[in-house]
Amino acid sequence: MPSKRSQPARKPRTDAQRNRVRILAVAKEAFARSGANTSLDDIAKHAGVGPGTLYRHFPTRDELLVAVYRTEVEKLAAAERKFAATMPPIEALRAWMLLFVDYVATKQIIAPALNTLVGGSSKVFEASYPQVHGAIGALVKRAIQSGDIRKDIDAVDLLRALVGVAYMSASPDWQQSARRLVDILITGSRPTK
User: Fold this and answer.
1) Residues in contact with 39: Cβ distance below 8 Å, sequence separation at least 6, in sequence order
2) Hey, what domains does the chain have and what are their CATH numbers?
3) What distance in Å separates the CA atoms of residue 143 and residue 89, rounded to the nearest whole number?
4) 85, 48 in Cβ contact below 8 A?
5) d(Cα 172, Cα 182) in Å, to the nearest integer?
6) Which residues contact 124 (CB under 8 A, 6 or more apart)?
7) Residue 117 confidence (pLDDT) above 80
8) Model's pTM, two decimal places?
9) Could you give the CA distance from residue 65 to residue 28 in angstroms, rounded to a whole number?
10) DSSP character string of the chain
């Protein structure tokens, strides 16, 4: 009889996958609203699962925080592909940049808590950089090729501008400013006539 270790990993049940997705969505909202120290029992309750289900998926608060953050990065990467396939280049870039504003908000909320992890948050953030950079890089390249934006636009500069708004302002309405900045950046990136 083969040992459990040699057997292929079982795919999680559909209801278990749904529970995990629901927990992550509720946790993101709860962390955004109340900070990283939000009660995990409250998160479970609002997700419609028992505390045991939450702890089966995420045995510690740190694991839940990292999972929320990674889920946001995965959404950014998936959104780039979806937007590129379904929208004109400039609209795809704009939509992705607006989504990036939400990502920055999540990162700001989660970063202080992740800093307490062994090795700090930098390892978690560093692992996400290639996905984020690759996504906006592909969208900018596509928009340049279509003639929607100038050839001298650097994707990293666009990211820095959005992140800068988030970190330069302690005001609670920085997200609205960042959303307006997306339109300013898009307009400023257009070719001059």
Assistant:
1) none
2) 14-59 (1.10.10.60), 66-193 (1.10.357.10)
3) 5
4) no
5) 18
6) 66, 69, 70, 114, 117
7) no
8) 0.79
9) 8
10) ---GGGSPPPPPPHHHHHHHHHHHHHHHHHHHHH-TT--HHHHHHHHTS-HHHHHHH-SSHHHHHHHHHHHHHHHHHHHHHHHHHHS-HHHHHHHHHHHHHHHHHHHHHHHHHHTTSTT-SHHHHHHHHHHHHHHHHHHHHHHHHTTSS-TT--HHHHHHHHHHHHHH--STTHHHHHHHHHHHHHHHHSPP-
Determine contact, residues 190/166, Cβ cutoff 8 Å. Answer: no
| Burial (0-12, 13-18, 19+ Cβ within 10 Å), 132 | buried
User: Residue 94 to residues 40, 125, 146: CA-CA distances in angstroms?
Assistant: 35, 23, 14
Beta-carbon contacts of 148 under 8 Å, excluding residues fewer than 6 positions away, are 88, 89, 90, 93, 190
Residue 77: which residues within 8 A CB-CB, separation 6 or more? 131, 132, 134, 135
pLDDT tens digits, one per residue of 123-144:
777 778 888 899 999 999 999 9
The amino acid present at 50, given as its one-letter code, is G
